[in-house]
Amino acid sequence: MQEFLWILSTLSANDLLDILIVTLLFFGLSWLFRGTQAVPLFRGMLTIILALSLVAGVLQLQALGWLVTNSLAVLALAVPVIFQPELRRMLEQIGRGVFFVDRPAPESERVKIIEETCRAAERLSERRHGALIVLQRGSSLDEFIRTGVQLNSDYNAEILLTIFWPRTELHDGAVIVDGTGHIASAAAVLPLTASRNLPHPKMGTRHRAALGISEVSDAICIVVSEETGKISVTNGGRMFSRLELDRLRILLNALYSPRPGDNPSFWQRLRERFVASPPSTGASRETQP
Question: Is residue 210 part of a domain?
């Protein structure tokens, strides 16, 4: 207690300013990295380092302690390489001044998106035109948006039918709808699922990509099979297959419609961003709603 009081008595205004700046720096980094794959990766690295340091300290293992201490310098050089996409995104957001404008689409816009998605999926299914539509939620999809042709257009069934027409240049890829309800990009490249427990062993690339994006984010992905015309939805590493139009609408209303707290206050959004947990990456499994 005396040591604590001594520390408080020796703190100067510059010390408090220094602590505040460092705190804001770490807070800003956690804010900007929210919703990216860097969060679980950084958490895993930090857990391993802390665990090894604890073991070396408790058991007095000098060799292990030396290894952990010297590996920190190597990690300092490796961080810019490992987190290159996230650092680039952070610098872009700083340059644009985009920090507190990440507002979700309003309820009326989400209802429109659900209806336009169902209308497009029905016609794509009848024509057996393959499609892959990703609806962004909380997780950032900027790194995947950049892989496609950026459009920033309104979202409606006619545009989707045009994009996924087999003879167009943009049909072979995913359409990503950003948090504002606009088509951010088309022909985007999505990560394939890493799970070996697939619903169907002969699942095609389009369905593997739909599962993949649901494993690394909380996005909702609607996929239409080019071979059978069947409609499926993925979310959280799960696949809901062979959906009729009514079931598709019910499922999208359950997953994508706004819930209480979707339009929180500034401080609520601040807290959610700071303590947000990474999306689930559990094994894929097929579900019949």
Answer: yes
Name the packing angle between helices 245-256 and 107-127 (round to 10°): 150
pLDDT, tens digit, 9 for 90 and up, residues 130-140: 999 999 987 77
Question: Which band of pLDDT confidence, cut at 50, 70 and 90, is reported for residue 62?
Answer: confident
Could you say which of 40, 72, 96 is where a domain stops?
A: 96
116: containing domain: 107-261+279-287
Q: pTM of the entire structure?
A: 0.61
* pLDDT tens by residue, 143-166: 899 899 999 899 999 999 999 999
